[in-house]
Amino acid sequence: MESPVTKSDINLQKMREIKRLKSVEDKRVGSEVFDRITLQTLYKLANQGYIHLLNGAISTGKEANVFKGADEEDTLVAVKIYRVTTSDFKKMQYYIQGDPRFNVRSNSKRQLINNWVLKEFKNLNRAYDAGVRVPKPIVAKNNILVMEFIGDENGTPARLMRQVKISNPEYVANKILDYVKKLYNDAKIVHGDLSAFNILIEDDEPVIIDLSQGLVVDHPLARELLNRDIDNLVKDFKKMGMDISKDEIKRKITDL
Ligand SMILES: Nc1ncnc2c1ncn2[C@@H]1O[C@H](COP(=O)(O)OP(=O)(O)OP(=O)(O)O)[C@@H](O)[C@H]1O
Ligand SMILES: [Mg+2]
Q1: Domain locations in the chain?
Q2: Is 67 in the pocket of ligand 1 (CB under 6 A)?
Q3: How far apart are CA 168 and CA 114, in angstroms?
Q4: What is the rounded distance in angstroms from the CA atom of residue 123 to the CA atom of residue 117?
Q5: Percent residues over pLDDT 70 in the chain
Q6: For residue 79, what are the contacts with CB-CB under 8 A and spacing of at least 6?
Q7: Cys-Cys with 158: which of 23, 122, 136, 150 at CB 3.0–4.6 Å?
Q8: Ligand 1: centre distance to CA 120 (Å)
């Protein structure tokens, strides 16, 4: 007769699974992604059912690695893990200061990263609630953010706008402008790093990602970043064959 599976068995099984996958991932992305606290955080998220499996790196960036994972119900999720060793703390400090949502007094790098991740999570929530198509945020813990996976049903991640030949440029450009407007007027945030590098195309629809740098609209840097976002969009739209001026975009966004 089979022995009954207890709750702790299942948890241990999950932990072993993640440990096994860790050794696979380590070879690919370098062991600095999974320091002790990151692993403990992954175990915690596994025990809470948020991540059952981590399988495959989607992206290995300057500061964060994004993995494809699955939750307890086998629904695909994207897991963004910030590396404590290689993050740009100066930049993080610069953007977090002046944001009334955060009161970062500590000089601890880990603390700063945790707040950075929380900021991305909160920005995603605000955007999602305002009807902007972003990955649905699921949970943020320490240096790890779990969110909806953007891609097809076979598990292939969506491609960046800069890599895709847009078949419906006018529709896509207007959708993006509508989202920037909703971000500004309803979510009350500025993306701060908006360009074809942070927009995914899923089923011909734009999806805005990477809101870590996002700021509340009354932050002292908000205007400057909004201007930069708009400049980037003008260039990206031009590449798509759409001639939309900076002033036109500004008018559309702020209704001024
Ligand atoms: N929810 C998601 N679903 C599918 N793919 C995603 C998702 N989030 C991010 N990605 C992929 O991971 C890449 C990096 O994500 P993101 O832009 O959020 O990180 P980043 O901060 O730019 O990383 P870095 O600046 O360190 O390169 C994206 O370009 C995209 O290809
Ligand atoms: Mg990015």
Answers
A1: 7-148, 159-254
A2: no
A3: 39
A4: 10
A5: 85
A6: 51, 54, 66, 67, 68, 69, 144, 145, 146
A7: 150
A8: 12
Per annotation, catalytic residue among 193, 203, 204, 236: 193
* Position 34 pLDDT exceeds 90: no
Ligand 1 atom closest to the CA of 151, numbered from 1: 4
Three-state secondary structure call for residue 68: strand
Q: Would 7-148 and 159-254 be classified into the same CATH topology? A: no
Q: Is the pLDDT of residue 152 over 50?
A: yes
Catalytic residue check, 210:
yes
pLDDT score of 14: 57
CATH class held by domain 7-148: alpha beta
Say how far apart CA 227 and CA 135 lie, in whole Å. Answer: 24
- Closest residue by Cα to residue 61 from 25, 29, 36: 29
Contact 29, 57 (CB under 8 A): yes
DSSP category for residue 143: T
Instruction: Give Cα 79 to chain centroid, integer Å.
Output: 9
Q: Dump pLDDT digits (tens) for 77-86.
A: 999 999 887 7
